[in-house]
Amino acid sequence: MNQQNQKIQNPETQVPKTPQMNDRDFVNDMLTTEKYITDAYSTALNEASNQAIYQDVASIFQETQNCQRDLYNLMFKNGWYSLEKAEQQKIQQAYQQFSGYTNQFPIH
């Protein structure tokens, strides 16, 4: 079986194709926004020097990350988000390439 270009996707929930935003457009916009926000919170966490602020931002980050995951799941469930199926040979090659790197990490 040819695994190239195989997509993992649920059946697509149809939405009106009009100039106005539809449900898919709204959810996609929210997902994109949540991804952007979690990226910004991640940077803030990396640079926070005050522990109380760090804890507050970490809590908000987790809530935002959960929202992002829920929106991703909704998009995937409705067939509006697809993934490319990875070829087993490429997975094995990457594993072999990086499996010898363990001694380069500070924690073994």
UniProtKB/TrEMBL annotation:
Q: Where is this region: Disordered?
A: 1-24
Composition-biased stretches, type Polar residues, lie in 1-21
Q: Name one Pfam family in it.
A: Coat_F
Q: Which residues form the signal peptide?
A: none
User: What does the UniProt keyword field contain?
Assistant: Capsid protein, Virion
Q: Please give the name of this protein.
A: Spore coat protein
This protein's species is Aquibacillus rhizosphaerae
